[in-house]
């Protein structure tokens, strides 16, 4: 992997150069929270953000999208407009890059989703290092550092961004800036390592994920699920903000006075009573406790069985977004009968 | 029935689709839209707005039910009872309320405790909202014309609010936002404008009121205030459709 450094005071110039690779989207402040938005002025970009309300998932699996148009003789016509739009996501945290890598396993693996894949192909990812806050546990989920899934990744080392070049596209961005990037020195490497170690120490939340799927097996009948089910509002917030929640529903709309219309895909959540409702009125997960339990099992056990790692990146969004303070770290540690266990 | 006619207004405000609507439907009896109405003919679909507040309402509703193959409750009043049915509206003591409001002549008024349509007749499906959403109305008509019932979201406003990436008024500002309990379909219009949800669309299918009351309680909001707020648009019993 190519490693370079970018002078911090040239960051705005670099951002202006990467515009030629697509519309630049970056975190901006929104009433005290943050959201990825198209950048109008570089000065409003907040690379010191903690987390965005929605993860970058929204760019690849939008909350609502039209998949196809159906009409009598014309049959089903896929709607592919706009999928080739080039964007650059600037300032993506490692956990969110990891989240996209997990979504790739789902949408670009055995079941290929052309809409997701087209958007993924047309997006460049520039990652940025961050500092964990009181809700971050990405290190426990092995998502505090990513080896892939970005074109460039920037690490603050003082006056420079230590820059990992992840792809040929990333290299093109570097070359497009002319002589802006500089080679790294031994001192830069030492500074990177020093800051990396300091970040590791900064995590306040810890979860041990070794043997967690097995603990889930053992605790299938735990009282924990009943209690969580009684608290959960089924509001769906945790699923919407989750970088790895990918459930959606597909429904046909019909244009007035016709037998044609769009088929649309909308985000869904396994916490909704309708999620496992099937024809005939049968419901596989009728009670709220069974639905809350399912969400935890899918993330921490089912996903591991399918893809070899938990379907959680430790971004803390569900903790922040839950109106009744259901806290995934608390739940996992409660299942283990430990308090904030060290994950080393 | 009795109401503010806001839902009829929404129907007539569907300007871009109105020509399609009149082309697709044979409108027989719609007082706000037409001066020549047939109040006796059989109907394929009856769209009924408002709550049942008088004996006259009740008789009329029964008659509409007899005339119509399908009866659709339109708007929160028709679906849930709405503001007329809020807490005080169904305390049973009509005579006292009438006397307080109209004095000695009160007893002469035709006034009954407010009821949603489903409490009087069989309702085939609901389009909730105060007022209803244009999109849901047009979608319902389109599906009906193809012999289908429309599929509306059953989940709460929070879901649509998050889809829009709004700030959370409940968590960030501690406001009494009814988003977690209120059925979606409005695309979180009010929270998107920084106004807490007042629950005007009525409860979500699976609203966890017990937990929500505890949550508001922990924020130091008196239980009575919450209950009153939650019952502004919908009394305790659901429409069951």
Structure description:
The complex is a heterodimer of chains A (344) and B (241). Chain A contains twelve helices and twelve strands. The mean pLDDT of chain A is 95. In chain A, a hairpin with a 3-residue loop joins strand 8 (152-156) and strand 9. Chain A is globular, with a radius of gyration of 22 Å. In chain A, the strands form two sheets. Chain A has an eight-stranded mixed sheet with strand order 3-2-6-7-8-9-1-10, sandwiched between helices. Chain A has a four-stranded antiparallel sheet with strand order 5-4-12-11, with no helix packed on it. The longest helix of chain A is centred in the last third of the chain and has 20 residues, at 288-307. With 344 residues, chain A is of the alpha+beta class. Chain A folds into two domains: 2-202, no CATH class; 212-335, no CATH class. Chain B is mainly alpha-helical and 241 residues long. Chain B folds into two domains: 6-145, Rossmann fold (3-Layer(aba) Sandwich), CATH 3.40.50.700; 157-230, no CATH class. Chain B contains eleven helices and three strands. Chain B has helices at residues 6-12, 15-24, 55-67, 76-80, 94-102, 134-145, 157-163, 169-173, 189-192, 209-218, 223-230; strands at residues 43-49, 68-74, 125-127. In chain B, strand 1 (43-49), helix 3 and strand 2 form a beta-alpha-beta unit. The mean pLDDT of chain B is 91. Chains A and B meet through helix 9 of A and helix 2, helix 6, helix 7, helix 8 and helix 10 of B.
């Amino acid at each position: 992997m190519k490693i370079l450094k970018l002078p911090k005071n040239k960051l705005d110039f670099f951002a202006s150069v990467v515009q030629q690779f697509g519309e630049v989207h970056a975190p901006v402040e929104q009433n005290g929270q943050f959201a990825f938005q198209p950048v109008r002025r570089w000065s409003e970009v907040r690379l010191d953000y903690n987390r965005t309300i929605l993860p970058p998932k929204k760019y690849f699996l939008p909350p609502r999208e039209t998949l196809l148009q159906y009409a009598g003789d014309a049959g089903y016509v896929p709607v592919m407009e706009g999928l080739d739009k080039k964007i650059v996501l600037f300032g993506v945290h490692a956990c969110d890059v990891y989240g996209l890598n997990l979504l790739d396993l789902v949408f670009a693996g055995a079941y290929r989703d052309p809409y997701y894949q087209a958007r993924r192909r047309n997006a460049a990812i520039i990652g940025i290092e961050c500092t964990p806050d009181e809700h971050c546990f990405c290190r426990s989920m092995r998502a505090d550092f990513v080896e892939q899934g970005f074109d460039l990744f920037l690490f603050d080392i003082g006056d420079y961004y230590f820059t990992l070049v992840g792809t040929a596209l990333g290299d093109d961005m570097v070359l497009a800036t002319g002589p802006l990037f500089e080679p790294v020195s031994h001192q830069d490497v030492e500074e990177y390592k020093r800051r990396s170690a300091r970040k590791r120490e900064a995590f306040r939340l810890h979860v041990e994920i070794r043997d967690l799927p097995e603990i889930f097996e053992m605790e299938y009948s735990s009282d924990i699920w009943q209690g969580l089910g009684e608290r959960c509002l089924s509001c769906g917030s945790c699923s919407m903000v989750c970088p790895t929640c990918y459930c959606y529903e597909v429904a046909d709309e019909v244009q007035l006075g016709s037998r044609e219309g769009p088929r649309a895909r909308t985000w869904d959540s396994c916490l909704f009573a309708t999620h496992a409702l099937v024809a005939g009125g049968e419901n596989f997960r009728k009670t709220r406790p069974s639905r809350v339990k399912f969400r935890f099992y899918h993330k921490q056990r089912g996903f591991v069985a399918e893809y070899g790692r938990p379907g959680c990146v430790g971004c803390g969004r569900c903790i922040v977004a839950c109106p009744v303070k259901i806290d995934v770290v608390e739940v996992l540690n409660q299942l283990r009968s430990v308090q904030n266990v060290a994950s080393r | 029935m009795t109401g503010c006619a806001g839902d009829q207004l929404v129907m007539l405000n569907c300007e871009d689709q109105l020509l399609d609507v009149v082309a697709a439907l044979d409108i027989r009896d719609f007082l706000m839209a037409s001066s020549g109405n047939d109040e006796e003919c059989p109907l394929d679909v009856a769209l009924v707005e408002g709550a049942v507040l008088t004996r006259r309402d009740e008789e009329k509703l029964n008659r509409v039910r007899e005339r119509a193959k399908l009866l659709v409750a339109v708007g929160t009043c028709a679906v849930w009872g709405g503001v007329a049915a809020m807490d005080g509206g169904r305390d049973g003591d009509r005579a006292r309320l009438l006397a307080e409001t109209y004095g000695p002549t009160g007893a002469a008024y035709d006034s009954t405790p407010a009821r949603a349509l489903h409490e009087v007749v069989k309702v085939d499906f609901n389009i909730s909202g105060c007022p209803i959403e244009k999109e849901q109305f047009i979608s319902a008509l389109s599906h009906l014309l193809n012999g289908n019932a429309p599929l509306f979201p059953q989940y709460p406003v929070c879901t649509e609010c998050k889809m829009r990436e709004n700030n959370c008024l409940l968590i960030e500002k501690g406001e009494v936002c009814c988003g977690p309990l209120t059925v979606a379909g409005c695309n979180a219009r009010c929270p998107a404008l920084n106004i807490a949800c007042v629950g005007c669309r009525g409860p979500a299918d699976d609203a966890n009121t017990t937990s929500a009351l505890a949550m508001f309680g922990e924020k130091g909001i008196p239980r009575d205030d919450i209950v009153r707020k939650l019952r502004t648009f919908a009394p305790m019993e659901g429409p069951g459709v």
